[in-house]
Write a structure and sequence with these properties.
The complex is a heterodimer of chains A (120) and B (597). By secondary structure, chain A is mainly alpha-helical. Helices cover 63% and strands 0% of the residues of chain A. At the A-B interface, helix 1 and helix 2 of A face strand 2, helix 9 and helix 17 of B.
């Protein structure tokens, strides 16, 4: 009995050693991937920060003001005036009938389906 | 182990036969047995101690070796941690209240040289001089060949310059990564941001430190590694700031002024939405001007007039005398006070503007509306010097402003050393003591906030902060109503912006000479206002340095002609930006759109 146990435990040690060896290399590979990803993320973040800075630079008020005055003929942009505040009451609403069409009960639908879809 | 009996029969019998005591044998055997047991347990204990000692030795050696290894090896980021890549920037961004970037970081490179590795120093020097105009070829050749092994050449490089240096292709030229502070809006809000520069510099990185403004005042917060990913949100509104700077600049040109400052403050929270001081500078390239000896500090573009400019603020102070007199119950808005000019006080003669006389009696409201020095002086005398000082102190006029700028603590108000009655009189109309425009804006915000003090701040707040009440709410309301009448029928008629109920007070103060006395033709004009008067939301303050309005037959130097129109234009432009509706009838609906189609 005892030799069998010895042999089995020796095989188990060999197996565990092989497993540990594999795991070790898998871990190292995973770490390499993580560090590659991290440096990619870092690069992307750096690019993002640069693009944010560029966006802020291109949208600086001085430049926008100059662009607005350069393109005044086409865009007619002026500084916001107190008189430009409107009131919701001054808006004309679309007529109710137009919106709901001929619907007169809760399960009716309006409009048409395009294509080959079968209405369920 | 064979156990020897304590009383071996053979020896007992033998002893009995010889007439000896057999118990002696037993005791002897017991002693021997105990000795044996003691030896065994001592051996066992010794072995245990040895094992224990050995394990301790092994454990401590392991720790020691590990510590030695950690201290001797170079530190590495924990690679298995996915969040490791989050923190790259070493300094947090600064944004305005809506998240628009005011200051950010950009990765760039510094250029340094190892002259001993250089192949052809003379050629490198010529080519570098061609790329960077500020470097001189002769100078560089000398520095490359005098035996030094390390030279810094440029603190920052643009990508194009870096490529050009690369193209020189000399192994002695090297690049070090640098994080550079970038202010994308140029001169906008320059005095708030201040500027930054490199601190300790190394080949692999350099420390970025704030040199002025918020950058320096909040340096610890901006560099805090735990907060580096969260931008610092200022209370500034970039759009408002841009509009204010544009109008102030135009105003300075039109009014022929040397400079000017403007402050927009939220009266509920003390948040400063805009703080402008012109002329300004570019924080990306902070200048270091050398001023002539007799120059005023205000001549430098670095000088923040709104915070550092400690001026006599003139008649804008009168409202404090009126408010305090009402608070103490001495007068009401309609009480008639003596305003008979000129007023003689000892050897001093207190006169009105252009020697007028608004008296003999004026209501308190009219004292403000007409800006009567004599009327204010009479009220101040009723209040008395001690109570006047206490009131001005509660409004913050005796301390430096607590705003988050490096310049703020240094800008203490200039107070008279003693406070005799003549100082009480002159202080009541804003002469004799000097404070910064920010002090004045804060005090006006306190009045507009219903009499509860506000603390000026440049950091975005989530709501009002607790303050102390310095005057009753009805007194504050009455004061705002007086300020409103100054605009509707007084010295600040040009401040009227239809729909926004501007309420404010003008102030004109002669500039003091260095040698003592005052200039005749140099003034500081201030207009401090709040709007809308019925429910004050914002303080708008404009100060112009040495303005003169020349459209009339003779030059005009009163605030009503200079600062007031500038402030009115600022209010007209920023009120819609701040989302405040004008209180007017909406224009009638367009007939064409009202008709159904």
């Amino acid at each position: 009995m005892r030799p069998v146990i010895y042999v089995l435990s020796f095989i188990a040690v060999l197996g565990l050693g092989f497993w540990a060896y594999r795991e070790h290399y898998d871990t190292r590979q995973a770490l390499r991937e993580v560090s590659a990803l991290n440096s990619e993320i870092a690069g992307l973040r750096e690019a993002l920060a640069l693009q944010r800075a560029e966006w802020a630079y291109l949208n600086r008020p001085d430049r926008l003001r100059e662009l607005a005055s350069l393109n005044f003929e086409r865009l007619g942009l002026m500084p916001l005036e107190p008189t430009q505040f409107g009131d919701a009451a001054n808006l004309s609403y679309p007529a109710v009938e137009e919106f709901f069409g001929d619907i007169n009960n809760s399960v009716m639908v309006n409009g048409q389906l395009n294509g080959e879809e079968e209405p369920l | 182990m064979t156990r020897t009996p304590l009383r071996p029969l053979a020896r007992i019998l033998k002893a009995r036969a010889q007439g000896e005591n057999p118990d002696v044998i037993e005791r002897e055997n017991l002693r021997l047995r105990h000795e044996q047991m003691r030896d065994v347990s001592r051996n066992r204990a010794e072995v245990r101690l040895l094992i224990l000692g050995f394990s301790f030795f092994v454990a401590f050696s392991a720790i020691g070796i590990r510590m030695g290894a950690l201290s001797a090896s170079e530190a590495a980021e924990p690679r298995s941690l996915a969040s490791g890549a989050e923190i790259l920037a070493q300094r947090a961004d600064i944004t305005d209240r809506n998240g628009r970037v005011l200051a950010t970081n950009m990765l760039t490179h510094a250029l340094y040289a190892h002259p001993k590795d250089m192949v052809d120093p003379a050629r490198v020097a010529t080519e570098l001089a061609a790329i960077f105009p500020e470097l001189k070829a002769d100078d560089l050749t000398r520095r490359f060949t005098d035996g030094r092994s390390f030279i810094w050449l440029r603190k920052v490089l643009s990508p194009e310059q870096m490529q050009q240096v690369h193209d020189i292709g000399d192994p002695g030229l090297l690049f070090g990564p640098r994080e550079m502070r970038l202010y994308p809006n140029g001169t906008l809000a320059a005095h708030i941001l201040g500027g930054s520069s490199f601190g300790a510099e190394g080949v692999h990185s350099a420390e970025v430190i704030g040199t002025a403004g918020v950058e320096r005042a909040m340096d610890a917060r901006l560099r805090d590694p735990a907060l580096v990913a969260t931008p610092l949100e200022l209370s500034i509104d970039l759009t408002v700031q841009a509009a204010v700077e544009e109008i102030l600049d135009a105003g300075i040109t039109m009014m022929n002024a040397k400079g000017g400052a403007a402050i927009i403050m939220d009266v509920k929270t003390g948040e400063i939405l805009s703080l402008a001081s012109l002329p300004a500078f570019d924080p990306n390239n902070r200048p270091n001007p050398v001023l002539p000896k007799d120059a005023e500090p205000g001549d430098s573009p670095l000088f923040n007039r709104a915070v550092q400019g400690v001026y006599e603020l003139g008649s804008t102070f009168k409202i404090f005398a009126a408010a305090q007199a009402m608070e103490l119950g001495l007068v009401g808005p309609d009480t008639m006070v003596d305003a008979n000019a000129p007023m003689q006080w000892g050897k001093h003669r207190i006169k009105e503007f252009q020697g007028k006389n608004y008296g003999p009696l004026l209501s308190v409201t009219d004292v403000m509306v007409k800006s009567s020095n004599v009327g204010t002086a009479k009220m101040a005398l009723q209040i008395g010097g001690l109570r006047q000082q206490a009131f001005l102190k509660s409004l913050g006029f005796f301390e430096a402003t607590p705003v988050e700028l490096t310049e703020a603590p240094g800008a203490r108000p200039l107070l008279p050393a003693r406070w005799p009655e003549i100082v009480t009189i002159t202080t009541s109309y804003g002469h004799g003591m000097s404070a910064s425009p920010l002090h004045l804006a804060t005090a006006y915000a306190t009045i507009a906030n219903g009499g509860i003090t506000v603390k000026p701040t440049l950091i975005k707040q989530t709501g009002p902060r607790p303050g102390t009440r310095v005057m009753r709410e009805d007194v504050a309301d009455a004061s705002v109503s007086m300020l409103r009448q100054v605009v509707t029928r007084g010295t600040a008629s040009m401040a009227e912006v239809p729909g926004y109920e501007v309420a404010g007070k003008t102030g004109t103060a002669d500039k003091p000479k260095r040698t003592g006395g005052y200039y005749k033709d140099k003034v500081i004009n201030t207009f401090a206002s709040v709007f809308p008067a019925s429910d004050p939301r914002y303080v708008v303050l404009v100060t112009l340095d040495e303005p003169v309005e020349t459209s009339g037959t003779e030059p005009r130097r009163t605030a009503g002609w200079t600062s007031v129109p500038v402030a009115a234009e600022i209010t007209r432009r920023i009120a819609p930006l701040l989302g405040i509706r004008p209180m007017v009838e909406a224009p009638p609906a367009d007939r064409l759109t009202a008709v159904r189609n």
